[in-house]
Specification:
The protein is of the alpha+beta class. About 40% of the residues lie in helices and about 25% in strands. This is Lipoprotein.
Amino acid sequence: MRSLLAGGLAGVTAVALAGGCAAQQFQALEPKLELRNAAQQLADAQQAGFTLKVTGDPAALVAAAGKDADAATVKQLFNSSVSLAYDKGGPGTDDDKSSLAATVDGVTGTEVRFVGGVVYAKAPVSELAAKFGATPAEVKELSGGTSEFDAFFAGQWVSIDLTALSKDAPTPTTGPDQQKALAEFTTSATNLLEGADVKRDGADDKHLIVTSSTTKAYAEAKRFATAVEPSLAAQFKKAPADKPIVLDLWIDNGKLTAAELDVLQFVDGATGRVAARLEVSEPQAIEAPTGATKLDLSTMPYFGGGADLSELEKLGN
């Protein structure tokens, strides 16, 4: 009987120990699985929105940058943000839509939308000009003094039909090169995640702390750049000294809601925290604004009688 009891106790102990080890392994693996699922969900989303801003202590950034820092410029940086959104629509790229909105040193209202092969834009030109020391007359010189830009200078929507300007001008959609870049970026992010240590914040179960290293980040940055543009491989000549890199992520109900990277961790001797913060927002409808004034850039003196669409096409892509 004693031997039977001893054997039973030993068996129970072994099961308990095995269960405890399994629980510890699952506990260590669980946040990484949650992060992987959240990242995949975001990658598969038909619609998404993001806001990029800088948070933390401006004085810490000025101190870290030293003599190259300008306190006024740093303050403007902390008071600015950029929001991006896209809507893939149905199959194919013909119905893809995207938008970009910016807050510039606290001034809101700058926005660009790409809908149906047309670029729509508006900006608080007078406010921005005054903030940066330019007069409305000086700004208007950019248009050659023509009246076609009056609506834009008044802060109203204007539209530019890229396809009407040139039969060769592509519509602002995601082309093969952009799709390849996105795929390679996803691969690099996945590779970094696989080799990183992912832990849950004990004080906030929505907060995941991801720790990788400069060596791994450098290797993936080189792999990504080389895959997208082979000629960039020559720019990666020497890997930096190996040190930990910490990325903070927040996941709520299976969705990635925010990510922060403290940029001061790359500056030796820096104190405080200055983070590049990416916030993931709920998808919003991207529609062509009504009442937009149509602009024909091919007639504008500033463009020498013909518009260079390359920059607009890059934005659209």
